[in-house]
Amino acid sequence: MSFNWVLIVFFFASLALPSATLAKTLYGRVLKVFDGDTILVRVQGQEEHVRLREIDAPEVTHRKKAGQEPWGRRARDFAKSLVEKKTVRMELEEREERDKYHRLLGYVFFDHTFVNREMISSGNAFFYPGPYKGKRAAELQAAEEVARGKGLGVWDKNKGLKERPHDFRARTQRDESLFSKFWRLIRGEEKKPPPKEYPVPAHKIVANKRSMVYHMPGSPGAARVNPKNRILFDTPEEAEKGGFRRAKTGNS
How do beta strands 213-215 and 245-246 pair? Predict the structure, then answer.
């Protein structure tokens, strides 16, 4: 068989493979835990909101929006104990699979702990199948059945949660967590407030230790770095020796 025929056979064989071949594994550091099923992760230098696939945690009270306390707070605190400030592995069923709030949908792992399952098996979240079940959906559903049988957490027979988060959101017409406002900003339905600016010492280069970017003296970007995240340098060479890179033109 010629080399060209080998390529053709390989191409058509790849089309026949299951969708799992489109899966993607990402690694990132968890910057913040919003609630029991949504986290903020720095992935390849970018911040990504990640929704733990196929789980639904009780809603957290936020500002004037009522939640499902104490269960919402307990779920968030438990999720924090598992992943906050830790480097996690995320398995995506598709390379860029996102929900309507543009959050990545993923199975999240820390070391050997499958976080989605741990949230359910501890009684801090429910199994929540979407329109397309992932490869671990059956495992998560089984974890819920065990937690329910043991009366753990939200399944406590006397003090458990009486209403699933999905039903609570539908009854109160509440969008999921903090992301309704975020997504309105993306779609241009809500004006984005001007960035906050802070005084900067004259002639100092301002570096941001979160983004690892530095800004030249007098630039707009320098004034927008929160003081708790900034490091000051006298020269670009000093900043670059410290591992920082110069901001792009227009922000530097």
Answer: parallel
pLDDT(192) > 60: no
* Per-residue burial over 11-29, b = 16 or more CB atoms within 10 Å of its CB, e = otherwise: eeeeeeeeeeeebeebebe
Report the run of H or E that residue 143 belongs to, with start and end: helix 137-150
- Return the ∠ at Cα 132 (arms to 126 and 133), rounded to 5°: 55
* Measured distance CA(82)–CA(110) in Å, rounded: 8
Q: What letter does residue 62 receive in the DSSP assignment? A: B
Q: How far apart are CA 161 and CA 11, in angstroms?
A: 51
This prediction's pTM: 0.64
Q: How far apart are CA 72 and CA 165, in angstroms?
A: 9
CA-only gyration radius of the chain, Å:
23
Return the pLDDT at 182: 56
pLDDT bin (cut points 50, 70, 90) of residue 21 is very low
Two tokens at 72? 């919402």
Please, which residues bridge with residue 92 across strands?
24
pLDDT for 67-89, tens place per residue? 999 999 999 999 999 999 999 99
Torsion sign, CA atoms 232, 236, 239, 244:
positive
More confident residue, 200 or 193: 200
* Check whether domain 21-187 has CATH 3.40.50.300, yes or no: no
Please list the active-site residues: 51, 59, 103
**CA-to-CA dists, residue 16 to 11, 13, 19, 21, 135, angstroms:** 9, 5, 9, 10, 18
